[in-house]
Structures are given as C-alpha cells and as structure tokens.
Amino acid sequence: MLALASAPGWTAVGAALPTSLGLWAADPSLASADRCLAVVALARQRHGGASFLRVAAQQAAAADAGVRACTAGALAWASPRAADPLLAGLLRDASARVRTSAALALACRDRPDPEFAPQLALMAARDPEPAVLRAVELARAPERCDAWGLVFAPPGETGPWLALRLRGHEFQAPAETLGPLRLAFGPGLAEATIRDPAGPPAEATSPRIVFD
C-alpha cells in the first residue's frame, strides 16, 4: 500500500485491488495508518477518481480522526469540483488534526480558491489550535504539490504532531504510527524538513523519503 500511495499514478489489472483497498479503508479492525494508506493509494490510482471519491466520501465521516485526516490530505489529488464539498466539511471537523490536513490539501493548489477565502479567513481569526493556524497560512498562499512526501520522526519523539518546515513556514503535520515508526505523509511534504521545536530547522539531511 505504501508503494501504491506514493506512486504518481498506477493502473490496476482488474477490479480486485481497488475493491480490496476500499474494504481495507473501511475496516475498523485495521490501524488508522493502514486505513490511511489504503485511502491514499486509491487517490493515486490513474483513472480511478470515481472509486476514490466513493471511498473518500465514506471515510470523511469515519469515527477514527486519523482516517478522516488522511482522507482530507488525499483530496489534494481530486479535482476541486469533486473535492471541495468534502474539504469544506473537513475544515470544520472537531479534530484539529483533520482541520490541519484539510488546510494542507488546499495549500497544494495552483492558486488561492476564492470559494474557500471566507472560511480560511474565519479559521485564521478564530481557530484555537496553533497547528491549524499554520496550515491555514500555507493554504492562503498555495503552491502546486506534485510529489507525495513521507517524513520520519527522529527516534524518541512522541505525540500526535510532527514539527516541520516548508516554504519558509514552520508548521505541524499530523503524525501516524506504522509499526515501530512515527511518520507524517501527505501532499507537499516532499519538500518539508524536520525542525526542532526548540531550535532552528534541521539540515536537509533529515530522514525523509520523497516520491516524485
């Protein structure tokens, strides 16, 4: 699933694999990181937009906030017309992780979207979570994201956020746990570097994987 999620576009031979990914995305017995990868893998399927949008509509309402957050990030790869209704709701989600991911999805567009300008302005003025506010800054000055990035946390770090730096901005990305690893993955994170919350950003040699 990691390979499919990080591919710029893959083609399924038959319907079995996309169907399985949809089932895995909805399986509450799986870890949220596994379900996330299934959602993102569907988002990256070439000519699979309809299948992804069906799954995204379901998982945007998942009980697991981690799955909703990952779904929000994956919507960066959907057409704005299809993604906007879901993103509008996810920007109002009760979870700060979900709101952050939805804002980061909007930060990957070619230009600011006037339809979201009032909502982002309201969030910038009223959202109580610093991570959301920093993601909103990026969303109000978007740049196209062609690559999907996977960033590993330094050993010993814990918590639901991973402190990163992107486009001259310091921000926090929702972190996931995958086995013994703690990581953040999403659109636009290919260019992100890990930063020390108490000091300057780390060197560009910070552990990360970039998928073009």
Task: Compile the SSE list and pairings.
Blueprint: H1 2-5, H2 16-25, H3 32-43, H4 49-59, H5 65-74, H6 80-90, H7 96-106, H8 117-126, H9 130-139, E1 148-152, E2 161-166, E3 169-174, E4 176-178, E5 181-187, E6 193-194, E7 208-211
Antiparallel strand pairs: 1-5, 1-7, 2-3, 2-6, 4-5
Helix pairs in contact: 2-3, 3-5, 5-7, 7-9, 8-9
Contiguous helical run count: 9
Helical amount: 40-55%
N-to-C SSE string, H for helix and E for strand: HHHHHHHHHEEEEEEE
Largest sheet: 4 strands, antiparallel
Count the strands? 7
Rough outline: globular
Q: What strand order characterises the main sheet?
A: 4-5-1-7
Class of secondary structure makeup:
alpha+beta
Low-confidence stretches: 198-212
End-to-end Cα distance = 16 Å
Average per-residue pLDDT, rounded, comes to 87
Rg over alpha carbons: 16 Å
Which percent range describes the beta-strand content?
15-25%
